[in-house]
Amino acid sequence: KLCCDWSHHHTHLSLFFLLVRQKETWEGALEYCRSHYNDLASLSTADKMNSALLEITQAEYVWTGLRFLAGDWFWVSGDDLDYTAWYQNEQPQCPDRDLRCGALDMQTKLWTHRNCEEKLSFVCQ
C-alpha cells in the first residue's frame, strides 16, 4: 500500500529529507520519490548526511539516491560525489551486478552497497 495515514508512513527529517517507512526495492523507492516528492536523497554533503542521521530511527538500512552504473557511483539527483562516507572508507570499485545500489547503514552511520532488489525503507528529498 502506498497511501493510507500519511503520518504513519512518513517522517519529516528536516528541510532536506523525508523518511518513507514502507519498504521498496531501490527502483521502487526511486519511482516513489520522483512521483511524490523530488528524488531519492543525495547525502552529498556532511550537513545533509548529519541532518539525515539525526532523524532516521527504527531502520537498519535505508535506500539513498546512490547508484553504480557504467563503472562509477553517482547521485541520481546529479549532485557531485565529492563528499563520501563509505564503510571502512572504501568505495566499492566493481560491485557484483546485484550490489549496485547505495544505502545508509544506520548502525555504522555510513554508506554501503546492497542488493537492488532488497526491500528497504528510503529517504526522499
From TrEMBL:
Source species, domain of life: Eukaryota
Domain C-type lectin: residue ranges: 12-125
Pfam families reported in the protein's UniProt record: Lectin_C (PF00059)
InterPro entries reported in the protein's UniProt record: C-type_lectin-like, C-type_lectin-like/link_sf, CTDL_fold
Protein name (database record): C-type lectin domain-containing protein
Organism: Sinocyclocheilus grahami (Dianchi golden-line fish)
Source lineage: Eukaryota, Metazoa, Chordata, Craniata, Vertebrata
